[in-house]
Amino acid sequence: MKKAHLLMLALTASLLGTAGAVQGPTQDDLNNADQATDSWLMYNKGYMGQRYSPLDQINASNAANLQKTCTFKTGEAGSFQVTPQVYKGSMFIATSEHSYAIDASNCKLLWTNVYKPTGPEVNPVSRGFALADGVAYRGTPDAHLIAIDMGTGKTLWDVKVADSSNGYFTSSAPVVWNGMVFTGEAGADWGVKAHMYAFDAKTGKKMWTFDLIPTGNQAGADTWQNADSTATGGGSIWSSYTIDANKGLIYMSVGNPAPDFAAEYRPGANLYTNSVVALDAKTGKLDHYYQQTPNDSKDYDTSAAPVLYDVDGATRMAVSTKGGYLFSYDETTQKQVFKKAVITVKNQDKRPTKAGLPICPNYTGGSQWSSPAYMPSNKMLVVNAVDWCGVVKLGEVRLIKGQLFFGGAMQLNDIKTAVGNTIGYDAATGKELWRYSLPGVRIVGGVTTTGGGLVMSGDSNGTMFVLDGTSGKVLYKDNVGKAPIGGGVATYTVGGKQYMALAAGNTSKGVTGVADVGSRIVIYSLK
């Protein structure tokens, strides 16, 4: 009997494989993620970064009937800027040190992974995962890249990307393509010199590196007229990445140069800061780039990932910035199509002074880590942006290891003057179609569009809202316990039923001071 029992256990193990094993998402799944209805695989849903789902069970005619299905509370406070990622009914979410898997239909906890940092944690935030072949990849506040088993939550490997004691961290949600994991460093505000990397998805071995602050004979090095300034040149990558899978190009938004406000210290355009850079994904070689803000002196990062879309027979790339602009480029001609101010812009062509320069927006305004969404049914881009001004002051340029390297300071205007906006634009021309504005409130989280004609996001007061994509009219609102919303909304099906999941509880970028800031996932469905 004992021998028979052992044989039965062996047979069971051979049939089931490793306990909790998850197969996929496959490369085909990832290639089709933009149009998938049963999943939300990447930070911005799919490679094109459109944050659009063709799902239409929930639509303009019934959105008013939404109700909470369940809530998962992490028990943590702090930055919470993820968009929930879903595969085969399981949802994967990240905080600064914790990774969770929960049931995407009822919020039941499946597993928890706790990361134990080995270096200083520079900025405790994570924007999520890359999911592929049963593995969830994420960055850490001490600049590591780790691989986690999607079925069990076990850490499979851990690679140190950079030395966090110098100000580096890896906050962006990685992306996987053809066996490679792509991620880059952040930390420009601490005076780092950032890079973009590709790692082998199975082993974590580094495959290529691209210097975001070029030196020597590298293209763009001549845009740093003070060569010494490249050692602390900045160039953070904050959020996630976009891929043209047909061309094999990976696009990344690169943030501000350093020191943030003392542009005279680093004369020149300062490539590749404040730019969208397209690299050959296999080799890491530069293909092309677009710079939005040369020689930035106000911390106007191009921080949110770009979106690729097809309109009127042309492939476009669009990106929104902290400086308050929406840009669109033709990917065939590589020329700018439009540049649209989405909020108040003031004194952006003037340098900061020691006495102080009033500017609009301040460095917590514009579009922070959240990208535009695309709605193909009406050829519309939707942008979240905060209209909020301030005063920038020039100061001493002095680098102290591990401390902020601003070369000045920013004073924010009264928070009551801030206005959060969700705005629809014609994706071909940049013409404004409608605007949803909330005075005294910030809208910094992700915006999502659907085949049901919906636009979904949330505000700093903790209210999730659903808008009609044609008119911008409010169809549904729900407050999630006054937990500021800095994350995004994902929508997907489980068992053929459509759900919406929201990440709330963010306390960064001036949205603190509320009674209840614990991070949580709230899942909605129709009554």
Percent of residues in beta strands: 35-45%
**Nearest-integer average pLDDT:** 94
Helix content: under 10%
Unreliable residue stretches = 1-19
Distance between the termini: 53 Å
The tally of structural domains comes to: 1
General shape: globular
Strand order in the largest sheet:
1-30-31-32-33
**How would you characterize the largest beta sheet?**
5 strands, mixed
User: CATH class, please?
Assistant: Mainly Beta
Number of strands: 36
The helix-and-strand class reads mainly beta
Domain Pyrrolo-quinoline quinone repeat: 40-339, 424-503
Cofactor: pyrroloquinoline quinone
Keywords: Oxidoreductase, Signal
Signal peptide: 1-21
Overview of this protein structure:
This protein has one domain: Quinoprotein alcohol dehydrogenase-like superfamily (Methanol Dehydrogenase, Chain A, 8 Propeller), CATH 2.140.10.10. Helices cover about 5% and strands about 40% of the residues. The chain has two helices and 36 strands. The strands form nine sheets. It has a five-stranded mixed sheet, with no helix packed on it. Strands 2-36-35-34 form a four-stranded antiparallel sheet, with no helix packed on it. The N and C termini lie far apart (about 55 Å). About 55% of the residues are buried. Belongs to the bacterial PQQ dehydrogenase family.
